[in-house]
Design a protein that fits this description.
Shape: globular
Radius of gyration: 13 Å
Largest sheet: 6 strands, mixed
Order of helices and strands: EEEEEEEEEE
Number of helices: 0
């Protein structure tokens, strides 16, 4: 199982970023996917979830209405579109396949003026 996150960077408050997570080594289309994040000195927290079968999504309250999770099963990739970014969104963002127990290296998102 390999998960490779990308798309992070430095952005001003109110800006947008689109994160990608490329998956390999398992049948991507069969697994629900989640995004998590971990800010310095804090526990890793769940951000968003997407179903493998229905495409249903769910979000943590603190990103509701600002972030959108999506997936492209043909590309074995899950995305996280992040809009209206706030300084408190600064963290390393990770994706994971539910039930696989693997994590990528993460991608750093920094929101600062």
């Amino acid at each position: 199982v390999q998960l490779v996150e990308s798309g992070g960077g430095l952005v001003q408050p109110g800006g947008s970023l689109r994160l990608s997570c490329a998956a390999s080594g398992f049948t991507f289309s069969s697994y629900d996917m989640r995004w998590y994040r971990q800010a310095p000195g804090k526990e890793r927290e769940w951000v968003a979830w997407i179903s493998s079968t229905t495409g249903s999504t769910n979000y943590a309250d603190f990103v509701q209405g600002r972030f959108t999770i999506s997936r492209d099963n043909a590309k074995n990739t899950v995305y996280l579109q992040m809009n209206s970014l706030k300084p408190e969104d600064t963290a390393v963002y990770y994706c994971t396949a539910i039930g696989k127990g693997s994590w990528g290296q993460g991608t750093q998102v920094t929101v600062s003026s």
